[in-house]
What does this fold into?
Amino acid sequence: MINAEKNRLLALKILNPSARELEHGLELHKNSLVFDAYGFMPLCGGCSSRTEELIAAGASRDELHYADEMHHMVEGFHDPRIRKLLRETWDFGGVDCIFQNCGEESNDAELLLKRLGNYTRTIDYCSETYERCAFPDRLEQIRARGNKALYITTNGVPLPSHFTSAEENLHLIETFFNLGVRMMHLTYNRRNLIGDGCAETANAGLSDFGRMTIAEMNRAGVIPDVAHSGQRTSLEAAQCSSKPVVASHTTAGKISSHYRAKCDEVIEAIKKTNGYVGICCYPAFLQGRKNINALLDHIDYVAKTFGVDHVAIGTDRCATLSEYVWASNAPNNRKFWEQYWRAPGSGPNDPEDFASMAWTNWPLFTVGLVMRGYSDSDIQKIIGGNVMRVCRDSLA
It folds into this structure.
């Protein structure tokens, strides 16, 4: 656990809870089902043993990217020390389940399958820690067995490369549901066939095909996620959905001008679907105080303006089990079209602000909510109950 103890002490210094608040918060966290509304399992560091070989062979950017992901998601866990550290990190963070991103930022079904395959292999390999969960009512059973769960999402709706009708273009939604996927991004930062992404300068909204996509997601039981969608796309998605819509990892636009934030009109529309807004742990997105207190400020705003039933915590973070190592002779490449495009206004993340919201600091998020005066039952909704409700409703 890289710097986990240091990060916890830093967050405690910022929060400055009383002994009673700290004790009660930690105990409540321990006794509650904690469900990260969007995040990543702890990953290995290091570097793939194949990287140098692939570079010498003239491998493409995509080959190198895949080899790197294979190491961090799969190969690194062959080391029994890393697997032991994996379990210790989960226990330190006190999280029971993550809505795990198991797909590339794309609509390309082959790309989505590659990452989904990696995570499926890891869950199977690390069975002493993990169970894959496709039905929310089984989470309590998994927790009772002392295991951790991954509930799967993808950063895109899978679409075939060739199709002749809109209906044919949507059949892979059910295929991926059958593979365990329970939530999908409608868009990433850019525009696609469904609608506009949040970082597009345009704000064109949901397409006709996008409306058909949401109808099929509703039918199949897949949650529409507008975390990376534009304001109008997000609004219209919520307005046309017959089941809950979520913004799994975002911020409140009323107190952040960042393009990833959601305005009040969008949050109200999400509320009307009985969905939730998951507040993420990125200082640049939160703005304001930018540390763990900013996270709590955004939770406060959504809870007090729209109701405690409609806010969650989607960290968008993971813990790294060892230092990342990059090949010194790795070629320079242009940035990926979908994954890493950032619009102006993102800004840098201060290391200490970032550290105060480390994934391993999840128990202190609960302590912070105790300090803000939330009841135990309301805190349990925020740290997992609301996600569980939406997961159930989407399958009804």
Remarks:
- The mean pLDDT is 92.
- The chain has one domain: 4-336+355-395.
